[in-house]
Amino acid sequence: MEQFIYYAPIIVVVLVFLIQERIVVTPEQLEKKHREIIRDVEKRFATLNSLDDLKGQFFEMKDKIDKIYDCLIISK
């Protein structure tokens, strides 16, 4: 116990430095940053559902173009 009392000022200074330089964060700060990251990701990237919907629309467009092409070839 005496060793802790002897080193207490150094320990306090180190802890204050770590907290002040934000090397150690609280769970609240971590949760806030996590929400910010998720918001940024939602703005910049497409979700898997929207990507699947877009693929389906491209497939439908391809089918329609193929049908139009077939109609043009048959009518000649």
Explain the overall architecture:
With 76 residues, the chain is mostly helical. It is 86% helix and 0% strand. It has helices at residues 2-20, 27-44, 48-75. The longest helix is centred in the C-terminal third of the chain and has 28 residues, at 48-75. The mean pLDDT is 90.
Please provide a brief summary of the model.
The protein is mostly helical and 76 residues long. It has 3 helices and no strands.
Features:
76 residues, mainly alpha, 3 helices
Outline the fold blueprint.
Blueprint: H1 2-20, H2 27-44, H3 48-75
Helix content: over 70%
Q: How far is the first residue's CA from the last residue's CA?
A: 99 Å
Number of helices: 3
- Molecular shape: rod-shaped
What fraction of the residues are assigned to beta strands by DSSP? under 5%
Give me the Rg, rounded: 30 Å
| H/E element sequence | HHH
Number of strands: 0
Q: The biggest beta sheet, please?
A: none
Q: Give the overall pLDDT as a whole number.
A: 90
Q: What structural class do you assign from the helix and strand content?
A: mainly alpha
Q: Extract low-pLDDT stretches.
A: none
